[in-house]
Each structure stands twice: as C-alpha cells, then as structure tokens.
Fold these 4 entries.
Entry 1:
Amino acid sequence: MTMQEQLRVLIQRNCAKLVEQIVDVGRLLAQIEESGAVSEDLIAEAQGITHQMKGAAGSIGFGEMGAAATVLDENLKDLRKRAGAISPDQLQATRRLFVTLQSIGERTTPEMSTLYNADLSQLAR
C-alpha cells in the first residue's frame, strides 16, 4: 500500500469517527434538553468531544467541520462557566450551532479532505 493509500485510509477512518462524535454530542444535548435541568457533567462531556473534533478535523483536512466544531466548543465552554444559570435561549443557540455542525457532518465525505488528493511528495519538502 502506498503512502497516499495509507493516508486515504486514515482520512476515511477519521471522517467516520468525526461523524460518530457528532452523533455523541447530539445525544448529550438531547439528554440536557429532555431533562429540563442543565447538567454540568453532560455539558463538559459534550465540550470535551467538540474540543477533540476541532483539532482532529483541522489536522486531517476538514476545515469547515473544524470551524463549526470550534464555534460549538466555544459555546459549550461558555455554558460550562455559567454553571446552572443557563437560559432556554442559550440552550437553543447551542442547538442551532449543533445543527450547523451536524449538517456539515452529513455532507462531508473523505474525498473532501484537503489531504485526500494531496501530492505527498510536495508536502515532504
């Protein structure tokens, strides 16, 4: 297997992992909304996932997904600082940011990575 083929396999795995992480964040946000009470633990868990996503997406060439994950990550960080003083409007704003990330994830394919067709011989220089 060539280095380019190995990179593509890595990109495919990471793309699938990012989509799984979006599902996980959605599940956590749904739990927060369903409970009617803001759980700092659930927000922290969701924020931990978005933090991982922003780094992984950017590193593997999914800039749009990384940017959306970064915005949601910052929003969740802000919610954590507020600890129990979170209004329904703030949760709704978080949900909108999540829907944006989810939409990007649904249309993202491994081939959309900036590294998928990269000329590795040029990158090594």
Note: The chain has one domain: 3-116.
Entry 2:
Amino acid sequence: MPKDAHNMAAYQHERAAKSHRAAAAETNKGAHEACEQQAVAACQYSAKADELSKVAHEKSVQRSKSALVAK
C-alpha cells in the first residue's frame, strides 16, 4: 500500500535527521570520532529513505493509474 510505503520512507528520513542532529551535537563537544559515526549512520538512513521514497512514489502512481482505469 502507498500509505505503508510512505510511512516507511518517513521513518528513515526521521532516523537520518536524528543522526544528523546527533552528529552536530558531537561536533559541538569536539567528539569528532562520534560525529563521524553519526554522520555515516545519517548517510545510510538517507540512502534507505531515498530508496523507500521512490518505492512509495511508484506505488502512489500505480494506485492513481488503477483508479483512473476503474472509472
């Protein structure tokens, strides 16, 4: 379902944002190794979010086309 796909993408975007905020906090503390770890995690979450966003979009388009055909 498109709803589930969008929710999964949103969850990964939220995880990426949380990791970006954690990386910023670690930078402010001067903890550069911890910052790098958080930044890597943020990139991984962002990549997954991007993949899931594309899937969600495709599902939404498919559903829209199905609805038009059904009319």
Note: The chain has one domain: 2-70.
Entry 3:
Amino acid sequence: MPWSYIVPAAISLINGNNQANAASSAANAANAQSRYALDKQIELQEPFRQGGMKGMNRLMDYLGLSDNTGAEGYGKYSRDFGMSDFVTDPGYQFRMDQGTKALERSAAARGGLISGNTGGALQKYGQDLGSQEYQNAFNRYQINRTNQLAPLQSLFGAGQSSANTLGGNYGTYGTQTGTNTGNMLLSGANSRSSSYNDVAGMFGKYLGNKSGGGGGGGGFGMTPTSASVWDNVGQEF
C-alpha cells in the first residue's frame, strides 16, 4: 500500500488512541478529585460521628439496653420512679433529718425525749413530710434524668446527622465516579471508532483505485472486483 494511504491511516489511529487516553486521564483526574473531596468530608464529619457513638453508648447504658452491664449507672433510667428513689432523695432526707432533730431537741428541753408523745410527733411529722415531699422528689428525679439524658441524646442526634451526611456524600461520589468513568469509556470508544472509520475509508478508497473504480469512498462495505486485487494489496503491505 502506498505511503500516501499508510501515513494518514497511522496518524488517524494514533490520534484516536491519544484522544481515548486523554479522556481516560481526565476521568481519572476527576475521580481523584471526587475522592479527595469525599475524604475531606469524612475527616470533617468524624468528630461528630465519634461523639454520636459515645453519646449513644452512654445513653444505652443508662437505659439498660447495652451489653456493658458493669457500666456505672447501668439501667438507672430504665424503670419508673419508685419508693427507693423517694426515700434516698437528698431533699427529702435533709428535711427529714432537720425536722426530726428539731422535734427531739424540743422534747429534750421539756424532759420528754423518750415519751410517747415524742414518738407520736415524730411519726406524724414523717407522714406529713412524706406526703408533701413525694411530688418534689419526683420532680427532682425527672429534672436530673433529663439533665443527664438530654446531652447524650443531642450527641446521638449529631452523630446520626453526620452519618446521614456521609451516606449522601458516598452516594454523590459513586454517581460522579460512575458518570466520569462512563463518559471516559464512551469518549474513548467514539475516538477509536472515528479513527477506525477513517482508516476504513482510506482502505476502501485504495481498493477502489486499485480495482479501477476511480477513488470511491467505500470503507469496510466495499467489495473488490476480483481476487487479484486482494493479492496485490497483500503484496504491497
């Protein structure tokens, strides 16, 4: 085959391959940039995710839902407020102690510390105080419970939000890399296909000239007029 056909065909093939390689490099660069952005987002979100995990773990301990049964305060908020919480309430205990001491001092001053009247007065005082202080003790319990659980719930919520953000970022990264790779494959295929078509056109033109057709534009669809044409082509290659 004459150089006037070989050189353009070779140039076309080289150009097609270069364009395909350029598309591949561009896609790889875009994917690397997407990965860098994802890694940076993971880095920025990691403290919130870690805080959320710690908050959730402590919350699970307090509610008695974790496997860490030896944790301090395990299960302390997994039950309703009860009498044991009431009688150990610091406010109730303080008022009970102070009231009892006042009655005992008063009785002692009158010389009746161990009298029946003193015992009755102490019993009545304890009953009245219990009736008055139960609601107060319950309210203090609820406030304390909220003060301990609310920050943990906030941490847990921040961690959950961070996880949702990262999930969306991973989805975006997957879409971007898939699109970049698909475009690269399509561009490379189109570039090579175009160069192959150019070579086919040149080859068809050569065959047309060789068979006396005067330069038809053929391509792979052209059929030589005789077997001798193919023999001559083979010899010149």
Note: The radius of gyration is 44 Å.
Entry 4:
Amino acid sequence: MFEGGEMNLKITRVNNGYTLEGTFGNDEEPSVDVIEEDELDELVSGEGLLWSVMDYFNFGGSKHDKERIRVIREKHE
C-alpha cells in the first residue's frame, strides 16, 4: 500500500458534483479531478466519488487480494 510521506485528498461538494484535490498518479504536484452529476442518474456522482476515494488510497486492492472493499449498486424491484 502507501509508503512514505503524507497523503491528502480534499473533497468539495459543488453545484453539479464534486471536486477532488490531491496528487493523482505519479505526479508530484497536486491536481484537481472533477466528478459531475448526471441528471438522468442521481447516484452516479456519489458512486464516482466513492470509487475515486477508494482508488486514491488504494482500498480496492487487486483481484488477487483475499479481502478488498467494493462499491456495489443494488436495485430493488
């Protein structure tokens, strides 16, 4: 997982979704990622936010891990 320094992710709720400020990928400089709402799917921005946080901190692991966290959307009929 994470080795060395400090990791920070700032999440801000904006009118049409979320902005995430942090160091993404191998970049040294902080950058901004945007998750926009979809007016046809009210859960898409929340789902995207959860996936982004999991990816940022590597909570999802890999398919070879015995345990990992997943985001699952359920439909009740």
Note: The radius of gyration is 14 Å.
